[in-house]
Structures are given as structure tokens and as C-alpha cells.
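Aim 2 progress update. The chain analyzed this quarter is reproduced below.
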Amino acid sequence: MRAGLAAAALALALLVALTVAVSLGAVDIPVGEVWTVVGRRLAGAPPQPGTRDLIVWQLRAPRALLAAVVGAGLGLVGTTVQALVRNPLADPYLLGISSGASLGAVAVIVLGVGAGSALGFGVSAAAFAGALGAFTLVWLIARRGGSFAPLRLVLAGVGIGQFLSGFTSFLVLQVGDDQQTRGVLFWLMGSLGGTTWSQLPLPAAAVLLALVLLQARARGLNALLMGDETATALGVDVARLRRELFAVTSLLTGVLVAVSGAIGFVGLLVPHVCRLLVGGDHRRLLPLSALAGAVLLVVVDTVARTALATQEVPIGVVTALLGAPVLLFLLDRRLERS
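Predicted C-alpha cells:
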């Protein structure tokens, strides 16, 4: 019942956040008019003359929905990675997964290999390969010597992430066009600017598929938290489960980075908040993390878009301002316990 109430509250909060996100901007549009435009478009009516119909349906609605999709995906990835490595401080950003995905995506964007569009499938495929490669490298370092060390995993992730970020910056500097360089750098800090309806199907399908696959493995994730030996004794094929989780989290991270850039700390914050609400059972935690992540990123994107009148703030800047203090607080608590 508690999980159901939390899910209902988050679903309502998401609906409110989406409505506010579409309503606010350089030109504020009343909530009633927002829903009038949305209802008319969903009913198949032709666009109305004037700029407000264009602003609501073509500019703000797809961006708000993509923010919800990306936030839901980051919440799922963060929850899964924390169970996979048995470390509550893990997330795609800290473990270098986002950096690997960014390197793959930027390589395609800058070098123009296999993609005619900066947000095409070629970029998603390259981001997936980069995410999977980075995660595999970090995991191998953490397992060096035959024993698994969570602290070593985090340190390896930070080190590999910084190395890949440096190489990404080197690629960006090879761009001859200053305008393109600024665009890539802004995208790397997280941006949903210029979102169109055509960009929604791929990440939405990836998040939905990942949720279904991960939900089916929720009991296995619960067992992993108790250690490999205990999980094996409970009948879990640990090696196979890890391979599946590697593939799912890397694929989802790659797709999300391809459409939004590297957004940190969402995958770290959301699972902790949701555990406080419903506990650590992944059967309830996974869908709730998706909802909470969607709400958080819609709110953050709205703040990033409207905080300054003269320019848009990268989403990664806002999430870093929120996430860094929380990370320091969690690190301090773990040090006190140890």
C-alpha cells in the first residue's frame, strides 16, 4: 500500500511537473491553454494560427516528455548499477559509464563516422559501445586479484571517467568550427535544447524495454545485494545475470547520452530517495525510481531553461549543484559507519 501511494503521488507530481514545464518559458502560457492545445492536437485537429500552439506542441511538449524519459532511464540505471556492484555510491556518471558513452557519441559527431545527424542511431550505437567498454574496463580493474572491492570500483570509475573525458575534450578541440565546438561542449554538459518529436521514440522504447527486462530480474537484483555466494545458493546464475545487466545498463546509458549528453548525479540521488520511501526490494524500487527520476529531471530541465533570462543553463550544472552536496553527505555517513 505504501509503494502504491508513493507511485500515485509521483505520477501526479510528474503530470504537474510536465504541465508547468510546458507552461513556463520566455512566454508564459496559462495551464488551461496548455491543456487545450494538447487535447486539440491529440484529437487530430489541425494547428491553430498564432505562436502559442507552436510553442506548446512543437517546442516545449517534446522537450518536457524527453526530460521525463531520460530521467526515468537514469533512475533505472542508477538503481541497477548500485545493486550490481553492491555500492550505494555508484551511478553511471561516477563509474565512468557516461564518460564512455560521451566519448563514443562525440567521436561520431566530430568525425562524422556512420551518422548524418548528431542525434541519429549511429550516435546511439557508438554511445552504447563506449558505455559498455568503459563499464567492462572499470569492472575488470575492480575485480583484479580475484576479489571484488567496492571502493576500488568507485576509484577505478572516477579514474577511467576522467581519462575518457580528457580524450573527449581532445576530440572536441579538433573541430574547426567554433560554433560546432560550443554546441558539442554545451551538449556534453547535458542539454535537451532543440528536442523534436522524432527524437522521442528510440529513448522511450529503450526505457520501456529496460524497465520490463529489469523488473523481470528484480529478485535476482535482491539476491545480488546479499553477495555472490548467497545469490548462487538461492539459485541465481550470477555470471549470466551480470552479463545481462551489463548489456541493459550500457545500452540504456548509451541511448540516453546520445539524446541528452552526460547528466550526472540523477542516478545517484533517485535510488536513495526511493529506498527511504519503499525499502530495498527491487520489485517496488525499480518502477518507483523511474517515476522519481522522471519528475526530478523535468523539474531540473525547467529550472535550467528558465533560471536565467538571457541564456539556458546546462542541465548537468544544475544536477551537479544538487548532487555534489548529497554525495559528500553520503560519503561522510559511510566514513562514520566504518
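Residues 51-84 form the longest helix (34 residues). The two ends are 35 Å apart (CA to CA). These observations will guide the mutagenesis experiments scheduled for the next reporting period.
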